[in-house]
Each structure stands twice: as structure tokens, then as C-alpha cells.
Amino acid sequence: MLSAAEIMRIKDLLPTELGSDEVRERYAQDLLRRSVFSARMAEAAYLADVRDVCADILEGKIGEAEAKERLLGTLAALGHDTANAESLEDHASDRRLDLVLETQTRMAASAARVAAETEDTAELYPAWELTRADNPAKPREDWPERWNAAGESVGWQGAKRGVWYGSGNTISFVALKSSPIWDALGAGTGGFDDALGNPFPPFAYGSYMDWFDVDRDTAAKAGLDVDDARAPEAPSLSPDDAELLEAAKRVGWPGLFDDIAEGGR
């Protein structure tokens, strides 16, 4: 079983000039899940440093401040303006660095968490509560719409309709860990174009929503069929060669096709 840091370190680099929407449209989701990428970032050296600093954060070796300092040094060496970067589109802006570090580390941590689930843990804690783990200055108000769209798309299989106030006064939702609602939520079902394609948090860019375990009695009181509880399917971190080849041929990823064809992957 891989730790969050190990999951981070085995990710491939995906340099691209594409924006976020274009990346989601052109690359297979499993390929994105095992890659380090940032919209409109074609510098592999920078992405390699993102991978390294995120793994170091997950291992507790460095904090966010040192991670940002290292990334700014790399950007400066690559010719980026690090003194006047302010907007989210600027790779050297504080907002963009926060987004990159938060997204990558949380994705790896969540992937490790799902992979660690067993039938025993699912028996004791069969559901997840999705709720805010922080207090953003401008919290999104569209989570009920996201949840309802995802739930309707899967016929509410293993999921409770509407808002559920389980662990506090913040907006929450609850579903079995094995419910397909998590895949639908990550896919942006309902037309939400900021979704990350993950069946685990973060489900969207800049989201503060996170998972918390729900015990068997509480899940049953919420109306879930706990007798149907089972461990969630572990996320794919290594798509097969056929998927990689298909993506490589579609977007012309330099060297990937030859690497696979020669048995290098």
C-alpha cells in the first residue's frame, strides 16, 4: 500500500500549453490522475519540482512557505517574472502556488486514503460525510446543485438526497463509500467545468470540501443501507498501455508512443 508521498513521487510529468478545460477534454482521466500538470505550464523542470516539494510536504520534511520559495526559484531560473505576479493565471503568484500545492497534496492524500480502505474499515465506517474542512472567505454556494446533479445521475445509489447536517452546522452530504455518486461528483456531472475528475476530494479546483468517516449507526440513521456497505474501489494510478497509447496518439505527447511501443513502460 502506497503512502500519499509515494503516490506523489510516482506521478508522471505532463507539460502542456493547454488550459484547464482543454486538458480535461483531451486527456483520459486516469492519465491525469497519475500525472503532475498545471494549466498552461510546458516546463517539465517546474513540474518535477512541484512533484518533489509536494512529496516533501506530505512527508513532513518542509512546510508550504519553503515549498513556495523553491518553486519561485525554479520559475525565476526558467525566466518567469516572479516579482509582479498577482493573478491566478500567473504561475508565480501566491494564489496560483497555493492552488497547485493544495490540489496536488490533497489529491495524493485522498488517493492513499481510498487505497487503504478494506472491507473491515467499510464495515465499521461505511460512509463518508462531505463537508467543508476550512472556512474560505467566499464559500461556494453551488454544492447542493452539484450533489443533486450527481445523485440524480446515479439514481441516488448509496447516497442520501439533499443536505445532511451530520457533524456540525456547516453544509454536509453523506453517501456510502462505495456509492457511484463520488465518481459523478468528480466528473462534474451537471455541467460543472471546474471538476478534477477524481472520485475523491478535492472534487473541484479550489474546493475546501473534504471527507470524514461516518460510523455504521450514524449512516443507518441517515437512511443509508449499511448492509450494502463495501470498500470503495481503489483509484487507478497506472492506466494500462492501451489507454496511454490512445491518449498519446490523440494529443501527440512527444516520446510517449515510442516509449510504450518499445516496452519501456
Give the overall silhouette: globular
Number of strands: 5
The N- and C-terminal alpha carbons lie at a distance of 21 Å
**Main sheet summary:** 3 strands, antiparallel
* Integer average pLDDT: 83
Following the backbone from N to C, one meets helices and strands in this order, namely HEHHEHHHHEHEHEHHH
Strand residue percentage:
5-15%
Uncertain residue segments: 239-245, 250-265
Number of helical segments with 4 or more residues: 12
* Structural class by secondary-structure content: mainly alpha
Give a quick set of tags describing it.
single chain; 265 residues; mainly alpha; three-stranded antiparallel β-sheet; 12 helices; 8% strand; globular; disordered C terminus
3D architecture notes:
The chain is mainly alpha-helical and 265 residues long. The protein folds into two domains: 134 residues, no CATH class; 109 residues, no CATH class. Helices cover 43% and strands 8% of the residues. The protein is built from twelve helices and five strands. A three-stranded antiparallel beta sheet has the order 4-3-5. Strands 1-2 form a two-stranded parallel sheet. α5 packs across α6. The longest helix has 22 residues. The radius of gyration is 19 Å and the shape is globular. It starts with a helix and ends with a helix.
List strands and helices in order, with pairings.
Elements: H1 4-9, E1 12-13, H2 20-26, H3 29-33, E2 35-36, H4 44-58, H5 64-77, H6 94-115, H7 119-124, E3 127-132, H8 143-153, E4 172-176, H9 181-186, E5 209-214, H10 216-221, H11 241-251, H12 256-261
Parallel strand pairs: 1-2
Antiparallel strand pairs: 3-4, 3-5
